[in-house]
Write a structure and sequence with these properties.
By secondary structure, the protein is an all-alpha fold. The chain has 2 domains: about 35 residues; about 80 residues, no CATH class. Helices cover about 60% and strands about 0% of the residues. The longest helix has 23 residues.
């Protein structure tokens, strides 16, 4: 398949995925409150689940993207989109110095990670009573 044929086939696949978006997702993309991310995922039946096995570089990437999330919902959505396995979530939790137990479920691990990364920022802002404008920070008279 040459470059043009591939491009046409890829654009058809992308168009199909875009058509599957909800109206809310489309509006979020258009107003800039959401971004579109393209990824290639293996759909071979060789794996017993759709979950990705942990990889240090991938986990570091997830950690960095989590740290820029502003809300619990966006962080949760990011983790769900990554489709990390329980082992991957446990590895991520350990990277964040979070205690995790063998009995923790995937949902519980996601909750712990989101709360550790996003919850603490939100609580800190609430305690400090910080506003969105940094103009009053660091200025003492």
């Amino acid at each position: 398949m040459d470059g043009i044929e591939f491009s046409v086939a890829a654009m058809r696949l992308i168009a199909k995925e875009l058509q599957a978006l909800t109206d809310e997702e489309k509006a979020s993309l258009l107003d800039g409150s959401a971004r579109l991310r393209l990824s290639v995922e293996d759909r071979s039946p060789a794996r017993s689940s759709n979950a990705k096995s942990p990889n240090l570089d991938a986990l570091n990437s997830v950690k960095q993207r989590l740290e820029v999330c502003e809300t619990r919902d966006s962080a949760t959505r990011l983790l769900e989109d990554e489709k990390l396995s329980k082992a991957g979530l446990q590895s991520l939790a350990r990277m964040l110095d979070l205690p995790c137990q063998k009995s923790d479920t995937v949902d519980r691990l996601v909750e712990k990670i989101v709360e550790a990364v996003i919850g603490y920022k939100l609580r800190s802002k609430a305690i400090q009573g910080t506003s969105e404008s940094p103009s009053s920070e660091g200025h003492e008279k």
